[in-house]
Each structure stands twice: as C-alpha cells, then as structure tokens.
Amino acid sequence: MAVEINNKTKNRIDLLLVKKTGEKFLKIKNKEKFDVSIAFISDSEMRKLNKRYRGIDKTTDVLSFSGEEKFLGEIIISYAQIKRQAKELGNKPKDELIFILVHGLLHLLGYDDKTEKGRLEMIRLGDEFIKFVK
Predict the structure, then answer these.
(1) What is this structure's pTM?
(2) Hey, which of 25, 88, 120, 123 has its CA 20 to 30 A from 111?
C-alpha cells in the first residue's frame, strides 16, 4: 500500500497527517494492497479541472478519479478552498481537510453524493471513520 502525496501549492500542509489518514482508511476498508495518489493544487488549477471534468466553472474542494487494478485512484484537493470552507463552517482547517480527504476516498470506493440520500450517507460514513480513528 502506498499513499503518495504531491503538494503543488505554497501552503504548509500536515502531509504526515494526510498520509496516516489515507493509510488508516485503506486498512479499515480492506484496501491496504491498493495505491492512492493525493495532490494539492491551486484554486485556479482546480477550477480548470472542475470545468473540464464536471462542466462547472468554479473551484471545488475535492475531485476524485478512480484508477484501475491496484491503483485505487487519485484525489485532488484545493487547500485554499478547504481553508475558506473551514472558516465558513467554524471548523479548524485540519479537521476540514481530513473530512474532505475521507470524502474523496469514499468516492474512490464508489460512493456518490449526486443525490441527497447519497450525500447524507457519505457524510455519515466520513464522520464514523473520523470518530473511529481519533
């Protein structure tokens, strides 16, 4: 199992926390033989990707792209968006980052938040995982 992280921003991000969270998630979900890539990118890059892959011309917090075979997939995160969301929601940026990371990992397992039922299920599963590992 490998969790590869690439920080393409100038932000100081607790990459060890990100790596450990990803590894714990994979272990708990019996996916420890899979690899995951996590990239932190700028808002402008995220906006371009969101427009290209989802047709939405604005930044977003996380995009997930499924992989094949032993590569579970890639998670792309806008840390600037995470910090804004944390402030708006009254959360610590670290807590918001972990929640969004777990959300992205759930997408790689096939969960979807296109419906309200799916969105609520992903929130519940994310909260359960975070409480379990704290």
Answers:
(1) 0.93
(2) 88
Domain positions in the chain: 2-133
- Token pair 């690899």 in the structure block, residue: 35
- Domain 2-133 architecture: 3-Layer(aba) Sandwich (3.40)
Query: How would you write the pLDDT of the chain (134 residues) with one tens digit per residue?
Result: 699 999 999 999 999 999 999 999 999 999 999 999 999 999 999 999 999 999 999 999 999 999 999 999 999 999 999 999 999 999 999 999 999 999 999 999 999 998 999 999 999 999 999 888 77
Strand blocks (E) in 2-133: 2-7, 35-41, 62-66, 71-78
Q: What is the 3-state secondary structure (H, E, C) of 44-63?
A: HHHHHHHHHHHCCCCCCCEE
